[in-house]
UniProtKB/TrEMBL annotation, chain A:
Protein name: Tricarboxylate transporter
KW Signal (keyword) present: yes
Domain of life from the UniProt record: Bacteria
UniProt keyword annotations, A-Z: Signal
InterPro entries per record: BUG (IPR005064), Bug_dom1 (IPR042100)
Residues in the signal sequence: 1-29
Gene source species: Billgrantia montanilacus
UniProtKB/TrEMBL annotation, chain B:
UniProt key word Transmembrane: yes
Domain DUF112: 18-435
Upper lineage: Bacteria, Pseudomonadati, Pseudomonadota, Gammaproteobacteria, Oceanospirillales
Keyword entries, A-Z: Membrane, Transmembrane, Transmembrane helix
Name of the protein in question: DUF112 domain-containing protein
Membrane-spanning ranges: 20-53, 59-83, 104-130, 136-157, 164-186, 206-229, 250-277, 317-340, 352-378, 384-402, 414-440, 460-478, 514-536, 542-560, 581-602, 608-633
Source organism, top-level taxon: Bacteria
Keyword Transmembrane helix recorded: yes
PANTHER family: TRICARBOXYLIC TRANSPORT PROTEIN
Length: 364, 656
């Protein structure tokens, strides 16, 4: 259970302060944030998954950033996160006091080059990421028991989603990569209503992000009403989504499923597209961006704070339930791989735009 | 289970938690009373504060606010005639009509008591239904959700009043407003004029504020007196208790309708309130008073909307699919406190479940009691020169609207809709159908396409669909039979015939130019929309066309009819409408001033104009009062952690 314990917080803050006095080491970083306030801009409404994750991280950042700044989560919803990100681009100063905390809802329009986008995400500096894995599962009525059966369903596969160019994109791309024959019914309000349609038997293949999967789908799997198939995977040492999702070590990644079905690792533009969009959606699911031109010093401060948050037993204890138990990824891990995903080759961009235009009738 | 009910009560009855519940209730009451600001505003303002408390206290605070919103908004709806929240539009129509007849206390008392019953029903449902409601919610598939939205729209259409053409044109206009933004079934943005502000569509609070509150505000400032033309007599509460008891079964039935509304995500309160209202209508023999102050309309709407907002929590806690926007924020709070809604939560934390039930029940009863207590004081406010109240009210509305996306678009949308609301009000076009069309357009379209994509046409024979459809068809048939019978009896009775003829030739007292301009605006809007619509993809075109095509024809008819009237009877000038023009101009200038010189500089100018110019206050007292209002407005902005809108040209920084 996550109940902010203010007393504990002040106590540990006091200890840290005391420790700071005694150590009196590199003074610059030590009190960089003393007396400052960090505004964490969430371009979605209150109560959404991003807001909840931001509120979850807030006390840990306050505690582990040097000088114990006050962190305020501020929502700026609208335009499917584009308004908030545009605001950030125009208003945020590169002084480490304003952070944009957002998801692939912001990066997908950027990658696809939508007109409304006024922000340059690739020029911003990622401070840290929180992976946001996802599991694809099917209804037992399809007769599919594992990823090997994906092509031999007893009935037509129906998938319920929100919109092709939004958070459904990576999963739809994985279906393209695996050449799954399915019908995508788009227009649901959110992943929750889509899951309800699955439970009612109106659709028979669905995916959920880790927190919702843990709280809703695990029970269905136990009851035998849902069969887990695969996860989006996570970025391995080779810099692509080849490894298993650390939250679900028992389920294969899309990469592995392709390998299993075709006998060779995935390649080609279909894979590159899935890799680019999948990495920003899953592995760098929730990313904190600092404005372009933020000095290295601030990045180094965050690097250290993230390492110490990951080592904090309280974080390890609580993150399991709240966010799926993922470690935060520091900038040193995020920057290169994310930057590559945000700037795919023209071939991948054309493929994405064509696929969306022809199969899903999306004009960008 | 029984011991859980007891231990949950222990959990709640701790001073800190009771205090949190009470603070939540107060916030809920204030926001319920402020026109246009409903549960979402109250809950999102409280949200940052709950993180300072323990989980149970924080949740109790939110529940306190959620449970009393629809009780407190009865006050605004009845006294101002502007719905405190969108789902109270029927209360605003019937209750305000009653208030004008000097029966405010009757409308208010019945409204409070019905809200309380609705809340208690909701609490009861939460306690018994959560363990068993799962299959019921799952039985409502996309086809049933579509039917529910359709039924809501049909019942709202029954509310259009005498002039069918105007009412239907208004509903069509609401649909047109509702389809702005992303189309659910095709990748099309509709009517957004290249503005990313419009990509998500117009927000409900802004539409409700603009259409109702701005227009009411203008006419009240212009009339110069208090809200009520003469001192509003509240009357005695006794009659309201008697009337409440007389209509107890109607209220219970409405509450049950409301509960079902809560099970249906997204369609929720607006649809169920209108369905309950329609039910009240069809179960009343003498329908003449509907629209002119029928207490049964108030009773049914208030019973339903409070039950809905609470049973919204059922899908929220069972499936983590929120039933409404306030429930969505509550869901976020549950996550933050480490409660993960789902079937497991019911069995794993029964204490939490019953704590929620107790909070809702307690807040419903206390909320009604407090409403009874504060109403006399609020009624006194209605005798104060309205320009004095208008100043803080307008600032609150601006702050509430600006909370949406914190861009100037919010203020522009509020102003544009305000002008539209004023035009419609003065042209005699009912605004409630606009609101209902607006609210239900999106879920109807969404569920229609989902339904046909998933089920083809087989959904038409689903038992749930047929049952819900019977809700439309049966009252329609009953009405037809009754109408035929009446016609036969009227035909035989010359006296009644003469009365009917007299009623139908009642001269319209609306200003000809205003009617003409409004009709022209509507024709232009529908005409433009028709042209742009032709470029949409087929899946994005159906729903707009349902609003635009009949809307264009109806508004052309209204325009033609008006031109003929002018030729035959000459120009009709309505002095009241003309007197309101300077006030309308003042408010539009305020909007422009915010754009050019920012909120911080424009607001003092507005205060001077309202207090000295309109209310004729002396400079000394005006300065004092204006300063207080200004400080409170700035306080609201900082409480909501917003920076007031800055000017395009200059911007006055604030010392905080």
């Amino acid at each position: 259970m996550f109940i902010p314990d203010t007393k504990l917080k002040t106590l540990s803050a006091a200890t840290l302060m005391a420790a700071g006095c005694f150590a009196a080491a590199p003074a610059m970083a030590e009190d960089f944030y003393a007396g400052k306030t960090i505004e964490m801009v969430v371009p979605f409404g209150e109560g959404g998954a991003t807001y909840v994750a931001a509120k979850f991280l807030e006390p840990f950042l306050e505690q582990h950033l040097p000088g114990n700044p006050q962190v305020n989560v501020r929502t700026r919803p609208g335009g499917g996160s584009i308004l908030g990100a545009n605001w950030f681009q125009q208003n945020a100063e590169p002084n480490g006091e304003t952070i944009l905390f957002t998801t692939s809802s912001t990066s997908n329009p950027y990658v696809l080059g939508m007109d409304a986008v006024e922000y340059d995400l690739a020029a911003m500096r990622p401070a840290y990421s929180l992976p946001f894995g996802a599991v694809v599962y099917v209804s037992p009525s399809t007769g599919i028991e594992s990823s090997a059966d994906l092509h031999s369903s007893d009935m037509p596969l129906i998938y319920g989603g929100i919109a092709a160019a939004a958070s459904d994109l990576p999963v739809l791309l994985s279906f393209e990569l695996l050449e799954l024959d399915l019908r995508a019914v788009l227009g649901f309000d959110g992943r929750g209503p889509a899951r309800l349609a699955f439970e009612r038997g109106e659709t028979n293949i669905d995916f959920q992000f880790t927190p919702a999967y843990m709280s809703q789908v695990v029970d269905m799997v136990e009851a035998g009403t849902a069969v887990p198939i695969m996860t989006g995977g996570s970025v391995g040492d080779d810099g692509v989504l080849s490894a298993r999702d650390p939250a679900f070590p028992d389920y294969p990644s899309v990469y592995e499923v392709y390998e299993e079905l075709h006998g060779e690792p995935p390649s080609g533009v279909e894979w590159d597209a899935f890799q680019a969009i999948g990495a920003t959606t899953f592995n760098f699911g929730l990313t904190a961006y600092l404005p372009e031109g933020t000095p290295d010093e601030v990045l180094e401060i965050f690097e250290e704070a993230i390492t110490s948050i990951n080592a904090d037993p309280e974080y390890q204890d609580k993150s399991q339930e709240a966010i799926g138990g993922y470690d935060l990824l520091p900038a040193s891990v995020v920057t290169d791989s994310l930057s590559e995903s945000l700037q795919p080759s023209d071939e991948v961009r054309d493929y994405l735009r064509n696929l969306l235009a022809e199969k899903y009738d999306v004009q960008l | 289970m029984l011991e859980n009910i007891g231990s949950a009560l222990d959990l709640l009855f701790q001073p800190a938690r009771l205090l949190a519940l009470f603070i939540g209730m107060l916030a809920g009451m204030v926001f319920g009373m402020l026109p246009g600001l409903g549960g979402v505003a109250a809950v999102s303002i409280l949200l940052p504060f709950i993180y300072l408390m323990d989980g149970y206290s924080g949740l109790a605070m939110l529940l306190g606010a959620i449970s009393v919103i629809y009780t407190a908004d009865t006050i605004t709806s009845v006294l101002l005639g502007a719905p405190g929240s969108p789902a109270s539009a029927p209360t605003a129509i019937e209750g305000h009509a009653l208030a004008k007849q000097g029966k405010a206390s009757l409308a208010l008392g019945v409204g409070f008591l019905a809200s309380m019953v609705g809340g208690l029903f909701g609490a009861l449902i939460l306690s018994v239904a959560i363990p068993i409601a799962g299959p019921l919610v799952l039985a409502l598939g996309t086809p049933e959700l579509f039917m529910f939205a359709l039924v809501g729209l049909c019942f709202a259409a029954s509310m259009v009043g005498k002039d069918l053409a105007l009412g239907l044109a208004a509903a069509c206009f609401g649909i047109l407003l509702g389809v702005i933004g992303a189309a659910p079934a095709a990748a099309n943005y509709r009517f957004i004029f290249g503005q990313s502000y419009l990509m998500d569509g117009l927000s409900l609070p802004i539409v409700a504020l603009g259409l109702f509150a701005v227009a009411e505000l203008i006419s009240m400032v212009a009339s110069g007196g208090g809200i009520a033309g003469q001192p509003m007599a509240l009357g005695k509460w006794g009659e309201s208790f008697r009337e409440f008891w007389r209509h107890r079964w109607l209220i219970c039935r409405s509450s049950i309708i409301g509960i079902f509304g809560g099970f249906v995500p997204a369609v929720g309160a607006s649809a169920s309130t209108w369905i309950a209202y329609g039910h009240a209508m069809s179960s009343t023999k003498d329908k003449r008073n509907f629209g002119k102050g029928e207490i049964r309309g108030v009773a049914s709407a208030e019973g339903a909307n409070n039950a809905t907002i609470i049973s919204d929590l059922v899908p929220t806690m069972l499936f983590s699919v929120p039933g409404g926007p306030a429930a969505a924020i509550f869901l976020g709070a549950l996550f933050s406190f480490g409660f993960y809604p789902g079937p497991r939560m019911v069995s794993e934390s029964p204490d939490l479940m019953y704590m929620i039930v107790w909070s809702v029940a307690l807040a419903s009863v206390m909320g009604a009691a407090i409403c009874f207590a504060v109403t006399p004081y609020i009624a006194r406010l209605t005798r104060v020169n309205f320009a004095l109240i208008a100043a803080p009210l307008l600032l609150i509305m601006v702050a509430g609207a600006y909370q949406g996306t914190q861009t100037f678009g919010d203020i522009l949308a509020l102003l544009a809709l305000g002008i539209l609301g004023w035009l419609m009000k003065n042209a005699g076009i009912p605004r409630a159908p606009v609101l209902v069309g607006f609210v239900l357009a999106t879920p109807m379209e969404q569920y229609f396409w989902l339904t046909t994509q998933i089920h083809g046409y087989s959904w038409l024979t689903r038992p749930g669909v047929l049952i819900i459809a019977s809700l439309i068809v049966i009252p329609l048939m009953l009405n037809a039979v009754r109408w035929l019978r009446q016609r036969r009896s009227v035909a035989n009775d010359p006296k009644q015939q003469a009365e009917a003829a007299a009623a139908s030739t009642e001269p319209p007292s609306h200003d000809s130019s205003v009617v003409l301009i409004t009709a022209l605006v509507m024709v232009a809007a529908f005409g433009y929309a028709l042209v742009e619509m032709l470029g949409f993809r087929p899946n994005a075109r159906l729903m707009p066309s349902l609003g635009i095509v009949p809307g264009l024809l109806l508004s052309l008819y209204v325009l033609g009819r008006q031109l003929i009237r002018i030729r035959h009877k000459g120009n009709m000038t309505n002095l009241a409408s003309r007197q309101e023009l300077p006030v309308l101009g003042g408010i539009v200038s305020y909007g422009l001033a915010i754009w050019v010189i920012g909120f911080n500089l424009a607001t003092p100018l507005l205060l001077v104009w309202l207090l000295v110019g309109c209310a004729r206050m002396r400079w000394g007292s005006a300065l004092l009062y204006g300063l207080a209002v200004y400080v409170i407005a700035q306080g609201m902005f900082s409480m909501m952690r917003l920076t007031p809108p800055t000017g395009a040209l200059i911007d006055l920084p604030m010392p905080w």
